[in-house]
Design a protein that fits this description.
Blueprint lengths: L1 H6 L6 H15 L4 H17 L1 H5 L4 H13 L5 H21 L6 H17 L6 H15 L9 H24 L4 H14 L4 H17 L6
């Protein structure tokens, strides 16, 4: 049946890719508040029914979803920020359940990578609105009684702390945006701090490479 087709290869198949791309398209286009809330509800159902798509095998769909949800965590509408934060929490919490309440490493990593990418792509991320969304995610973890006695709440706190560290480092970079050497030094420090996380280290090294190309420092 259709569900089995969608679950082929842990959800990494052409049919699921098409279905997921439809959801992604709804997130990438400007929608009304009501439409967006319905998209968020539909995404919860998709994550719940097909968790392996996001937590097994390749990380591309989990990565794309984290990126788009995080953009809405910076929305001007507080209701959308709340809904997006709760959806991101649901994605992390579901990941934790999927591993038998051991960890949510997959989502944790993809959220950090997405934040790093968003800093370059979205103006104003990291301001008060985004900070409020991080607080909502923390509150969700602290008020979730079912996982109160697990490592999950402290892991969520660690994730939001890491995000804030990246945002602070980025604010410093903003101050030195007209000083390419200082900017690259800051990015290199950030890349080094993620030596144990190759994907994230690569994100910052890629960013450094773009600065070198922009400034014509090809030998670097």
């Amino acid at each position: 049946n259709l569900k089995n087709q969608l679950l082929t290869d842990h959800g990494h198949n052409p049919l699921m890719k098409k279905v997921f791309d439809v959801y992604l398209c709804f997130l990438q286009k400007n929608q009304s508040e009501t439409a967006l809330k319905n998209v968020f509800i539909a995404l919860r159902a998709l994550i719940f029914k097909f968790p392996s798509t996001f937590y097994e095998g390749r990380a591309d769909m989990c990565s794309a979803l984290c990126y788009e949800i995080l953009k809405y965590c910076n929305s001007k509408l507080s209701s959308i920020r709340t809904e997006a934060s709760q959806l991101l929490y649901f994605l992390m919490r579901n990941n934790f359940d999927y591993t038998g309440k051991k960890s949510f490493v997959r989502t944790h990593l993809q959220v950090i990578i997405s934040v790093s990418q968003l800093i370059a792509d979205v103006v104003g991320i990291g301001g008060t609105r985004f900070q409020q969304s991080l607080s909502i995610i923390n509150n969700c973890a602290n008020n979730d009684r079912i996982i109160k006695h697990t490592t999950f709440p402290s892991d969520v706190k660690d994730l939001t702390k890491r995000i804030r560290t990246v945002l602070m480092a980025t604010a410093q970079m903003k101050e030195h945006e007209n000083d390419p050497e200082m900017l690259v030094d800051l990015q290199y420090s950030l890349a080094k701090s993620y030596a144990s996380t190759p994907e994230l280290r690569k994100t910052w090294l890629d960013s450094m490479a773009r600065i070198h190309v922009k400034n014509g420092d090809l030998s670097e």
